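Re: [ENG-882] Designed sequences occasionally contain unexpected residues at chain ends

Forwarding the minimal case from QA. Structure tokens:
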């Protein structure tokens, strides 16, 4: 049987004091309608990335809402994860073709995992199955649909995938009842729009990484691992992945140091079971940083976990996320939630999180990154205003109950026999551009063609209006 991930107990009621009632109330109403439905999540690793962090909180909250949920992990030998990492990179645009041997190993591993899943007694009573990212996507093909609704949740930027790799994986994804993407821009053009739903992810404000941490404790935590908290600090928290451009961050730091003497750079990343390339990137970063005592390099295997990340995000003068390609980049919302200004690459879901100038500055180059960091380090008043706007945007749109509400809306639609592509309509409380639920009141309105829409930001409203104007009559 597939390994079941142990999760703790969480109560939805504890989110009342941080999440707007306009999100909490409909979430509880919808959960009552679906009460008793059983949910299974399947992913590739129990730690080391945004998917695992989301599931560790979402699974127990589903159960508390009256929808018993389980989280299982597929298994595979190291060569299998080398193949799936190649797929991951190809979906983000790299051009490294799959070999016949790659495909054979991928399908053999998938068939074995599907057989283990089908033999699992917990699988029999499951009503909804969420399958996350490309590693386990063939499960449906080998395990069989039966009475369940199957949802493929793609967390990757697939806006410009390698055509051959996407064509191969689409053969599996096409059989799902729904395909969920982080942004509309990520949906490959040949996927049936009637089965597509757009749901941006969110952070758990009460998790160890995001819960309240007083300044004295945070300083003690960073001091323990060698950070001088009385010196300026810029930090990037991310997987060690070339798409996160860690070498570009180091180059930008060198430019900043010329303007802000004494500045430090911290790079912290997680090593995940499904990312065999991470150690190669780590060694490359180590070589680039070894001659500079102002650069600090950390991993989850050297004592930096959720609490240390929490402290970094609270005490850094500027958080950096210089992504070249990005699925979403939840570390941006994590930093914004803690009231820390952010400098981030204009990639993936980052502009959505930082829409309308919330949270910090978006950049497109190493030089631009350095200039923005210097701007925020030397202009604390402006940095504080941006940071305050960022925290409020996260509160309204990027906390976990909003994600649960959007997912339950999808499940209720599937249960009623609706196609996912028909679920997001004007007047249903969803932003028609980014897909998020928009709480009544703070939404930005637009009346067009006799219909009323609400948006989470001027960015989404303007993009929607422009797109509608471009559609031929």
């Amino acid at each position: 049987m597939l390994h079941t991930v142990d999760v703790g107990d969480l109560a939805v009621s504890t989110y009342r004091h941080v999440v707007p009632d306009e999100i909490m109330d409909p979430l509880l109403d919808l959960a009552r309608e679906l009460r008793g439905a059983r949910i299974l999540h399947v992913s590739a690793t129990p730690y080391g990335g945004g998917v695992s962090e989301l599931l560790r909180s979402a699974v127990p909250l589903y159960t508390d809402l009256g929808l018993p949920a389980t989280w299982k992990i597929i298994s595979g030998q190291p060569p299998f994860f080398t193949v799936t990492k190649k797929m991951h990179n190809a979906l983000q645009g790299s051009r490294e073709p799959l070999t016949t041997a790659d495909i054979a190993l991928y399908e053999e591993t998938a068939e074995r995992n599907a057989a283990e899943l089908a033999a699992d007694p917990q699988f029999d009573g499951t009503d909804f199955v969420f399958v996350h990212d490309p590693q386990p996507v063939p499960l449906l093909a080998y395990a069989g649909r039966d009475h369940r609704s199957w949802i493929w949740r793609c967390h990757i930027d697939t806006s410009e995938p390698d055509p051959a790799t996407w064509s191969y994986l689409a053969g599996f994804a096409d059989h799902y009842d729904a395909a969920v993407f982080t942004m509309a821009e990520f949906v490959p053009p040949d996927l049936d729009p009637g089965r597509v739903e757009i749901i941006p992810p969110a952070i758990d404000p009460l998790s160890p990484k995001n819960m309240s941490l007083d300044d004295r404790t945070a300083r003690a935590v960073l001091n323990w691992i060698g950070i001088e908290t009385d010196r300026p600090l810029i930090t990037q928290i991310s997987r060690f992945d070339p798409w996160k451009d860690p070498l570009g961050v180091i180059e930008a730091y060198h430019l900043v140091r010329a303007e802000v003497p004494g500045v430090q750079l911290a790079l912290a990343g997680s090593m995940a079971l499904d990312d065999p390339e991470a150690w190669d990137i780590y060694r490359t970063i180590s070589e680039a940083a070894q001659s500079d005592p102002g650069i600090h390099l950390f991993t989850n295997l050297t004592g930096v976990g959720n609490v240390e990340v929490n402290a970094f995000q609270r005490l850094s003068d500027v958080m950096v996320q210089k992504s070249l390609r990005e699925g979403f980049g939840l570390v941006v919302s994590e930093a914004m939630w803690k009231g820390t200004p952010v400098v981030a690459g204009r990639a993936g879901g980052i502009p959505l999180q930082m829409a309308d100038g919330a949270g910090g500055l978006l950049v497109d180059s190493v030089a631009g990154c350095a200039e923005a960091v210097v701007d925020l380090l030397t202009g604390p008043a402006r940095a504080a205003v941006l940071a305050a706007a960022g925290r409020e945007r996260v509160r309204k749109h990027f906390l976990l109950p909003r994600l649960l509400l959007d997912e339950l809306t999808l499940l209720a639609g599937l249960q009623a026999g609706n196609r996912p592509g028909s679920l997001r309509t004007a007047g249903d409380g969803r932003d028609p551009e980014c897909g998020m639920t928009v709480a009544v009141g703070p939404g930005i309105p637009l009346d067009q063609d006799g219909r009323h829409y609400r948006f989470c930001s001027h960015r989404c409203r303007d993009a929607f209006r422009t797109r509608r104007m471009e559609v031929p009559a």
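QA comment: On inspection the terminal residues look reasonable. The first helix runs from residue 21 to 34. Proposing we downgrade this to a documentation issue.
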